[in-house]
Write a structure and sequence with these properties.
homotetramer; 342 residues; alpha/beta; Rossmann fold; Dihydrodipicolinate Reductase, domain 2; 2 domains; seven-stranded mixed beta sheet
Chain lengths: 342, 342, 342, 342
C-alpha cells in the first residue's frame, strides 16, 4: 500500500478525493490536514464517510506530509506553491488540484491570479495532468498540475478538431455550464440555494481564470495561437459540467470517425454515437468525459457537446487517474464505478 | 369590458394566460375550452386559480367563441389553422400562441411541422406579434402569430446588432437554455423530474422547429440571409430562458449605447448596465426581457445575454401585450407586476 | 398616500415587502434603511425591483423613520426593541416582523432568544398579528408583532380543532417542512445549494425558537396548556411551508364543516374540499393559507395539512395584511394576485 | 459466478439493480427482460451503463429465466405471482421487489392491491426480506419478498422501541417524505418536473398501500396490533426517504443505548450520535439506513429520524443484500461504496 496525504481536505474536492480513495485498492490515506478543522474526525464533517474514513483532520505539519509517498493539494490557489518545493526535495510526489502550476508563463499566471508566484522555477517541470495529452509525462512526473474543470471539458471536446487541423483557430466559442459544486464550499451569499436555485445566469464574461488555461491547451493542440471566447454559466444543480463548443470547419472529414479514432484507446473518454446528446447525469460520480460531435443543418459550424462531473474528471477523479499513472497502478484503479442515474 | 376566449387552456401556457388575464383591468374571460376536461372547473385543475377563476372548461364549440371579441389559441400546432378562418369572418380577432402562422413561407412551415397548412392564404395577413418590431401592425391586425419562446429571447438580443449592420451575418450562434415548462404539460417520460432534475443536456442540435422562425426574424432585421447555429438545452428548473448569443463585430461602435438607444422606448426590454449578467429569476413571472452586451477581452466576438420567462414574454405575457395593442389598451395593462425573487 | 418605512430591508423578508408594497394602491415607500448597503440603490441588490423601486438604502436614521406613518422592522431579533419605544412616542405605528414582541412572558422570550429584552413594558401592549384571531385588536394597535412562519401555518391548521375543544391537548404533533428562504440571506455554509440541494433533513428537534410561540398560540385557542412536539425540516426548494399536524379526536364532529365554518369569512384562509392535499406551489407568492383536514382509516387521529408561502403569509404578506387593518384599508389591498404555477 | 436474471428492468429499480450488480464480485448478469424494449441494448436506455453492461433487453421468456440461479422481479405489482411458481419448481430462487408476497393475509393484499392473488399458497413460504429481522430465514428462502421503501425506513426506525415494549402501540405516527424516483419511471403528468419541482405536498392520506405492510411489520415487532397513522409526502428531489416517527414513551430507558445495542451487529444500520439529524444525502446511492433518536424537551414523545435511499436500501440494494444471504456471499458484497456527497 502506498501512503498518500491530502492538504486542505475540507472542500468538495477534498471530500470527493476521500470518497474515491477509500475504494482504491492500493492506497492508504495517511494524513489529511486542515487548520480550521484540526482534531475533527473527517466523518463528522462529511457524514457519507462514516464507517469508511477513520482519520481526523490534523494541523498542516509538513513533517507528516514528508512521510507520504504522494501528496494531493486540495487547497485554494497560492497555497501549494509554498509547500511543494520542500516536499519534492524529500522525494514526495505532488498533485496540485489548484491552479498554481497550470500556466506555463508565470507572468500570465500572476496577471490572472493576482499574486506573485512563489516557485516559478518549478512551473516548467510541472506536468499538466491531462492524461489524454500527457500520459507518459505524467507517469514520470514529480509534480503534476491537475487541470481545471472547465479546461478539462473544453479541451477534450476540441482536441480532435485542433490536432487534425480541420477547424479555424479564430472564432472558437466555449459556452460552458457548471453545477454549483464548482464554486466550492465557502460561505458565500451568491451560492445560497435561495440565490441560485431555480435560476440560471452567465458569469465572468469579461474574463475568467480558466480562459488562459483553456487557451494554452488549445494552442498546444493546434500548434498555433487560438482566438477563443469562453462564457461560463451557473446551473441550478450540484454536479456536472456541460461544454457546448463551436468552431468553423475548414476541411470536410468524417467527424464521427475522427473523434472515435482519437479516443479509441482512452479509458475515460467515451465518444457517443452520431446524433447523440450527452447528459451530465450520465457521468455523475464517475471519471468519464462523454462527447458528441454534430454538424447541424449541413453547415460549416461544428458543434461538440462534452460532459464531465466537475468533481471527478474535473478534479478528484482526474487527480487519482494521474496518481495511478505516477505510481504505476492500473490507470482505472479506484475509478471503475457506474454513474448514478437517476 | 372586452370578452375573450381561450381555446385549449389546459397546458402551462393556458394557466399562465388565466393567471395574467385574471388581473387585467379591461378583460372578462368568457369561455375556455378543452375537449378532455370539459365540465371540470378550471380551478380544480389549477389550484392557484381557486377564488380567482370561476369558469369551467367547456367543449370546443365555435359558436361560443364567435361571441368573443378576441380568442387566444393555446393549442398544439395545427389546431388554430382549422378554426381561425371562420372566427375571423365573424369579426373575432385571434392570437395564436402556437406556430401555425409564424413562418412566412408555407413550404418551410410544412417541412418543419410535418403537415399541410389548412389556410395558407391567411399566413400573409397574419402579423408576427413581436411588438418591438411590429407594434403598429399588431395594433391593426385581425390575426397575430405570437412568437415562440426561443425566438423571442434570441431576436430581442440580436436585433440592435443586425439592424445597425455591425455584425457578420455568417457564423451567428444562439446557445439557448430553457426551463422544463417550455416542454409543456404532456405525459412524457423525458420530462419526469427523475429524468431531468439535477442534470443538463442539449437537444435538437441537428434541427429544432424554432430555427426557421429565428432565422426569418434575424434575416428581416439584417435585410439579408443569415447563417445561424441554434443549440437549445434543457435546464433543471421550471421557468426561464437564457440565450447566450455570439457574433463577429465588423464595425466598432459603442455597443452599450446602441442597445440602450434601440430599446429606450420599450416598456418590456431592459438593457442592463455594462458588465452585467442577467439572471432568469429576475424576470420570473413577468413580461420583461433583460439583455446585457459584452465584448470580452477586447476581441471582436460580441456576446449578448438575453433572459425572459418562457411562459410570460415567451408566451402568455407577450400574447396579452399583443392583445393590449390590438384592443387599444395601455400596452402594459395587466403586465405591471414585479418578478418573484427569491 | 400613507408613508411607510422599512428598517433592515436587505434580507428575503425585505425584498418581499418591497415587491408587495410596490403594488399597493395606498402606500408610498418613504425610506428603507440598511447600514451595510447605505447608498446602494435597492434595485442593484434586487434586480426584480428595477423599474419598480427607485429608492436607495439609507443609514438607519431614526429621524427619517419618525416622518413615516408606519414602520416595518425586517431586522434580526433584538433590533426592533431598541428603536420601537422612541418611534411609538412620536406617533409612528410599528410592525415588527422579527420575534421581539411575540412572546407574552419576557422570561420565556429571554430564555429562547438569549438576550435581555430592552422594553418588556411594551410586550403587553403589542398585538400578535394573526388577523384570524386578533383582527380587531390589530386594527387598533400601535405595535404589532408579526407572527413567525411556522407558527402561522401550525396555528391556522390547529385553531378550529382547539377552539371547538374536540381534540386532546396532549400529544399534539406539528411535523413541519420549510423551503430554504426561511433561513434568510446570510452567508452560511449550511444553506449553500451544494449542501441543501437534493437532500432533506430535520433540524432543531431538541428545541426551536418557534416552539414557545406555537405553544402560546395553541394554549390561547384551547384555553389551557398544550403538550406539543414540533419538528421542523428543511426542504430542497426556495419558498413554502407545509405543516402536517396530528392530534387525537375526543369528540366526533363533521371536521370538514367545522373548518369551513371557522374560516368562512376569512379572505386568506382557504379550506380545501374533503380528501384534498394542498401543494405549497398553490400558494407561492400569495398571502393564502390552504388547509385540508383528514381522519384517515376511520381512526381517531386527525391529520391537518396546512400550506403557506413562508415569505408572504409567513412574513411580508401578513405584515401588509396587518398594515391594512391598522390603517383602515381593505384587508386584501395589495394582496390579491394569483399564485405562480408552475 | 452465479447467474442472475432480471424481469422487467426498465424502471428505476431495474437500472439501480444493474448499477449495483455490475460491481458485484460473484454475479454474472445472464438475462434481463422487457417486452417493450426487447432487442434494445440496456446501455441505450440507461447511458450510465455504457461500457459496464453489454446485454440487451430480451422478451420475457421463462425458459431463459429457468437457466438462472436467481431471478429478481422488478415488475409492477401482480406480475411476479404469475411466473414465480414455475421458476421455483425448476429450482430457481426468486426475489420479488414488488409487493406480491409482502402481505401475510391474502385478503388484506387483495383489498389493497385490487386483484386476486395468483398463488396464495406461496405467500406463507415467502420470507419478508428485511435482514435486520429475518436474516436466517432469508438465507434459507426460495422466495423472498423484498420490502417496500417506506416500510423499510419506518420499520427500522420503530423496531428497537417496539421490541423493547417501551412505547404505546396506539397513536403511532409515521410522517414520511420521499424523493420522486419512488414513483417510478412511468409517463405521468403528476411526476413531471413542472408539476413536482419547487413544491411539496402530502398524498395518499386516506390510505396508501404501504400502510398494511408497515402495520404488519410493527405488529410483529410489538407482539400485538398497533394503531398507526402513515402520511407520505413527495419531495422535490430525486432520491431519498426521510421518516419522522412519533410515539409515546411508557417506560423511561436510555434510548440511545437501546438503539445502539439493537443495531450493533448490523452492517447497514447506523445509529447516529445523540442529538444528530441524519440527511438523506448521507445515504445517497448506498445501502445504509441512518437513524437518530430524540426525546425533545424532556417530554414523553419520542422522535425517531430514519433515512434511506429509496432505490437502494428501499429496493435494489436490499434485494442484493438478500441475494447475498440466500447465496452464501458476504452480506456486504457489492454494497460497500461511499455515499455521494455533495
Amino acid at each position: 500500500m502506498v501512503r498518500v496525504g491530502i492538504v486542505g481536505g475540507t472542500g468538495y474536492t477534498g471530500v470527493e478525493l476521500l470518497r474515491l480513495l477509500s475504494g482504491h485498492p492500493h492506497v492508504e490515506l495517511a494524513v489529511i490536514t486542515s487548520r480550521a478543522e484540526a482534531g475533527v474526525p473527517v466523518a463528522d464533517l462529511y457524514p457519507n464517510l462514516r464507517g469508511h474514513v477513520g482519520l481526523a483532520f490534523s494541523e498542516p505539519d509538513i513533517e507528516l506530509l514528508k512521510a507520504c509517498d504522494l501528496v494531493f493539494f486540495a487547497t485554494p490557489n497560492g497555497t501549494a506553491m509554498k509547500m511543494v518545493p520542500e516536499l519534492l526535495e524529500t522525494g514526495v510526489r505532488v498533485i496540485d488540484l489548484a491552479a498554481d502550476f497550470r500556466i506555463r508563463d508565470p507572468k500570465v499566471w500572476e496577471h490572472w491570479y493576482g499574486m506573485t508566484h512563489a516557485c516559478p522555477e518549478l512551473i516548467e517541470e510541472a506536468v499538466y495532468g491531462l492524461p489524454e495529452v500527457n500520459r507518459e509525462a505524467v507517469g514520470a512526473a514529480r509534480l503534476v498540475a491537475n487541470p481545471g474543470c472547465y479546461p478539462t471539458a473544453v479541451t477534450l471536446g476540441m482536441l480532435p478538431l485542433l490536432e487534425a487541423g480541420i477547424i479555424a483557430c479564430r472564432g472558437l466559442i466555449a459556452d460552458c455550464k457548471s453545477g454549483v459544486s464548482g464554486a466550492g464550499r465557502g460561505a458565500n451569499v451568491g451560492m445560497l440555494m435561495g440565490e441560485v436555485g431555480e435560476s440560471f445566469k452567465a458569469y465572468g464574461v469579461p474574463g475568467h481564470r480558466h480562459l488562459p488555461e483553456i487557451r494554452q491547451n488549445l494552442a498546444l493542440a493546434a500548434g498555433s495561437d487560438v482566438d477563443l471566447t469562453f462564457v461560463p454559466h451557473l446551473l441550478p444543480m450540484i454536479r456536472g459540467i456541460h461544454a457546448t463548443l463551436y468552431g468553423r470547419i475548414e476541411k470536410k472529414v468524417d467527424l464521427q470517425a475522427l473523434f472515435e479514432a482519437r479516443y479509441a484507446e482512452e479509458p475515460f473518454v467515451d465518444v457517443l454515437p452520431s446524433g447523440a446528446h450527452p447528459e451530465t447525469r450520465s457521468v455523475r460520480a464517475v471519471n468519464d468525459c462523454r462527447v458528441a460531435v454534430h454538424l447541424p443543418q449541413g453547415g460549416d459550424t461544428v458543434v461538440v457537446l462534452s460532459v464531465i462531473d466537475n468533481l471527478v474528471k474535473g478534479a478528484a477523479g482526474q487527480a487519482i487517474q494521474n496518481m495511478n499513472l505516477m505510481l504505476g497502478f492500473e490507470e482505472t484503479d479506484g475509478l471503475r464505478s457506474v454513474a448514478l442515474l437517476p
